[in-house]
Write a structure and sequence with these properties.
The complex is a heterodimer of chains A (284) and B (278).
Chain A lengths: L2 E14 L8 E14 L3 E5 L6 H8 L7 E6 L2 E3 L8 H6 E4 L13 H12 L5 H14 L16 H13 L5 E5 L7 H18 L2 E6 L2 H7 L2 E6 L2 E7 H6 L4 H9 L5 H18 L4
Parallel strand pairs in A: 3-8, 3-9, 6-7, 7-8
Antiparallel strand pairs in A: 1-2, 1-4, 4-5, 9-10
Helix pairs in contact in A: 3-4, 3-5, 4-5, 5-6
Chain B lengths: L1 E14 L2 E14 L3 E5 L6 H9 L6 E4 L2 E4 L2 E2 L5 H7 L4 E4 L3 H4 L6 H13 L3 H14 L5 H4 L9 H13 L5 E5 L7 H18 L2 E6 L2 H7 L2 E6 L2 E7 H6 L4 H8 L13 H5 L5
Parallel strand pairs in B: 3-9, 3-10, 7-8, 8-9
Antiparallel strand pairs in B: 1-2, 1-4, 1-5, 5-6, 10-11
The chains are: A alpha/beta (284), B alpha/beta (278).
Chain lengths: 284, 278
């Protein structure tokens, strides 16, 4: 198996400028995180708000350079701190954001949303072919030719997320960074988008980095799981290992807080509640 | 005995493209001390029906119902003054965005004391003492300091606790919680749900929990109403709903939960309704 993505001891510092009275401060958002993902696999990064999971996603997606450590994509060390990623590198890594309402320009038609990555990164492709590629991609993500000339506001949240995924796939990336791609969607739409992601992964041999706070989604989609808390990877392992034997207290705390929809768990809760009511003798 | 009773509730909105029916003939009721969950996806009308009860809908909404009564009082034919006696005292509500629900320009202490003075006629000093008690009860750390804090100085979970403190300040008999934990992390969600459930037990108040999250339903509800596109699909006690859902939509919702995935693919709602995938 080839390793598509590798991170070695990645750190990220944010400098907070001092105000009139306080001095400048440095916040260490990531405290040395290492990981690697093989081709065609999904690494899930799990954490709560403020854990640094989105900071890490932005580093992997080549949006922000890390303060320290090394990032390797397809075995090549990548450094974007002085120079923005060029067309070759940009074509390898793409990102899908959480909010499909915010990540699409409301004044840009869907067709032009999809063609833009090609215009910028592969200008050698003629306009006619570009259009064909975009139309084909629309069909691939479950939309139709008739959607080509529509604006984002004419679509539902799930359809918009499909457009965002289509845009990310236009350059044939090998790695897709998905930052909470289904958190803003309804349950039934979430299922459709997760199915779509699974289909696309199989068809294109895509590697996913899937950032999420939802353990039930992670359990469904991930091969490997990394739990991060306060900028540190507190637990790393295969999905089976992490879910079966969570080692770190924080992981266990996360599991305990995740609601159970298991019938036996509900039965136990209902019984406990009835017992408590009878014990307190409250007549209702 | 039913505390809140709704029969054939319909809510229409006048829009530029004609009338839109958000809630379409809903029947439901809540008993004293009961936890009712109303589940649905966006656009199911789950919030709108409860906003109609609270009288919080804009003027563009037309509300019709055969019956909408609280504890024998007819909510439809009530004057505004009579309604104000109920809303905010007997019936209170908390919302999804705790930080947006609080006024950013005043301290949380001022805002909760205002509730106590206006609704219960307490003096400033009484209100201050009671506010402190309430903050302790909902588990806000260092409550004395937090009474002097502004909403932006507190986390989302803490702001939701403040909202809950305000909502229970008048010892209501019915608390409506509209997606109270959606904006919060799972560990905080657990804490807030636990808090709501323990307060519900302690006060013996009825709780209506509006949510899209089947997990939240499983952890809290006695009885569940499932809504879809403004209509009621199914109503059942929580155990029967999860054990043997009757309506295809409920089945679809439950099987779309990733933890219930059996094969490689998640079934979607359209698989159950036989519609084309969209």
């Amino acid at each position: 198996m080839t390793v598509v993505l590798e991170g070695r001891d990645i750190t990220q510092d944010y400098h907070v400028r001092g105000g009139m009275f306080g001095g400048a401060k440095t916040v260490r958002a990531l405290k040395g995180v290492s990981f690697s993902v093989e081709k065609g696999k999904t690494l899930a990064i799990v954490g709560e708000s403020g854990s640094g999971k989105s900071t890490l996603a932005r580093i992997i997606a080549l949006i922000d350079p890390p303060s320290g450590g090394e990032l390797l994509i397809e075995g090549q060390p990548v450094n974007i701190s002085h120079k923005r990623p060029g067309p070759v590198l940009r074509s390898k890594v793409q990102m899908v954001f959480q909010n499909p309402y915010g990540s699409l320009n409301p004044r840009q038609k869907v067709g032009s949303v999809l063609m833009e990555p090609l215009v910028i990164n592969k200008p050698e492709i003629p306009a006619e072919e570009r259009r064909l590629l975009a139309e084909a991609m629309l069909v691939k993500v479950g939309l139709g030719h008739e959607h080509f000339n529509r604006y984002p506001h004419m679509f539902s949240g799930g359809q918009r997320q499909r457009i965002a995924i289509a845009r990310a796939l236009m350059l044939n990336p090998s790695l897709l960074v998905l930052d909470e791609p289904v958190s803003a969607l309804d349950l039934s739409v979430q299922a459709q988008v997760l199915n779509l992601l699974a289909d696309l992964q199989e068809e294109f041999g895509l590697t996913y980095v899937f950032v999420s706070h939802d353990l039930s989604v992670v359990r469904y989609i991930a091969d490997d799981v990394m739990v991060i808390s306060q900028g540190e990877a507190v637990e790393q392992g295969t999905r089976e290992a992490v879910f079966a034997h969570p080692a770190h207290p924080y992981t266990r705390q996360l599991f305990a807080a995740t609601p159970e929809t298991d019938v036996e768990a509900i039965r136990a809760r209902v019984a406990k509640r009835q017992a408590a009511r009878q014990a307190s003798g409250v007549a209702r | 005995m039913a505390l809140l009773k709704i029969r054939n509730l319909t809510v229409r909105f006048a829009t530029s493209t004609g009338s839109f029916t958000a809630v379409d003939g809903i029947d439901t009721h809540v008993d004293r001390g009961e936890v009712l969950a109303i589940v649905g996806e966006s656009g199911s009308g789950k919030s709108v029906s409860m906003l109609a009860v609270m009288g919080l809908l804009p003027d563009t909404a037309t509300i019709t119902a055969d019956e909408m009564s609280y504890d024998g009082h007819d909510l439809l034919r009530m004057t505004k003054a009579e309604r104000r006696q109920l809303i905010g005292r007997e019936i209170t509500m908390i919302f999804q965005e705790p930080i947006a629900s609080l006024n950013p320009s005043f301290t949380t202490g001022f805002q909760i004391e205002e509730v106590l003075r206006l609704n219960l006629g307490m003096s400033r000093r009484e209100a201050k003492a009671r506010a402190l008690e309430l903050f302790q009860q909902v588990g806000i750390p260092s409550p004395e300091e937090k009474l002097k804090a502004y909403p932006h100085q507190m986390s989302g979970g803490q702001c939701q606790r403040v909202m809950i403190a305000m909502a229970i300040a008048t010892k209501p008999r019915l608390l409506i919680a509209d997606e109270p934990t959606t904006a919060l992390d799972v560990t905080i969600q657990k804490q807030i749900l636990d808090l709501l459930m323990s307060l519900q037990e302690e006060y013996g108040m009825a709780l209506i929990l509006i949510t899209h999250d089947m997990g939240v339903v499983a952890e809290t509800a006695d009885r569940v109403v499932v809504q879809y596109k403004g209509k009621k699909m199914e109503e059942a006690d929580v155990l029967s709903l999860f054990e043997a859902p009757k309506h295809p939509y409920t089945k679809a919702l439950l099987s779309a939960l990733p933890e219930n995935a059996t094969g490689d693919r998640l079934p979607t709602v359209s698989d159950f309704f036989g519609e084309g995938a969209r």
